[in-house]
Prior knowledge:
The complex is a heterodimer of chains A (196) and B (76). Chain A has 196 residues and is of the alpha+beta class. Helices cover 29% and strands 33% of the residues of chain A. Chain A is built from six helices and eight strands; from the N terminus they run ββαααβββαβαββα. Chain A has helices spanning 31-36, 40-44, 55-63, 114-129, 144-152, 184-195, and strands at 13-15, 19-23, 70-77, 82-92, 97-104, 134-137, 156-167, 170-183. Chain A has an eight-stranded mixed beta sheet. In chain A, a hairpin with a 3-residue loop joins strand 1 and strand 2 (19-23). The longest helix of chain A has 16 residues, at 114-129. Chain B is an all-alpha fold and 76 residues long. Chain B starts with a helix and ends with a helix. The relative contact order of chain B is 0.21.
Amino acid sequence: MKRQPWITGMPARLETERFIVRSMGPNDATDNYMKWIADPELMRNLNTQPMAKTRDEEIRRLKSYDNSSNFQFGVFVKPDNILIGFFQVRIDKAHKLAEVSVVIGNRDWWGRDVVLEARGAIIDFLFDRLKLEKIWGMPQARNFAAIANYRKQGFRLEGVLRGHNEYVYDRSKRLDFVVFSILKPEWHARRTKEQA
Amino acid sequence: MSDAARHLLAEALEIDAGAMADNVAMENFEPWTSVAHLRLILALEEKLGAELAPDDALAIQSLADVARLLERGRST
């Protein structure tokens, strides 16, 4: 990954072999993106209702990311910069933690290690530039694809949160979630091993 | 390793069963993608006729884990 200059509060831009991973701005609320955030199949994994927002509302929401304590990174395929998904990052500066979640909206890219490659760049950024100490995620227990990605990226399972949320698509049901995390030394050991 | 486990995993990973070593594991086997893992769990649930408990699904990280789960399913 090429390292690019970045100042806190400014949009961040990361690069991997196949992707540009950068802070999303108002121009990124494309037709495809608006379809994804209104898609029940995609939003179900986040246990949120389809965000049936207008483009103006979504642009306002994207502008609310401060690129300091929270980010929304788009994943853009090189060289044509086609948006295929996005990550949301919420940072707890007091404890040097970040929670990361992801939606790959373009189904043609499912199962092609987009999450591993793009999240790898985000993890490098969070540990090395923002000096955080721990990154965690909380997929639904039946989001098996997400769980596989956490495992393959070296995250450790912290536990199962039983009946942790009401299922927003059927309020009579409650959903289990799982927590995965990785600490900075674990990530650096992994990167060192990859480069050996 | 049981043939049933080997074939179930190979089908989910869309590869030849003969292409897998007995010690194949999710973390270091390229065909074991996120989508392949999803296919595997759903195939296991179909074969066992029940949804896996979270702990059982989370335990599946290798061919040996698949074989263990199938063996246990057969004995219950």
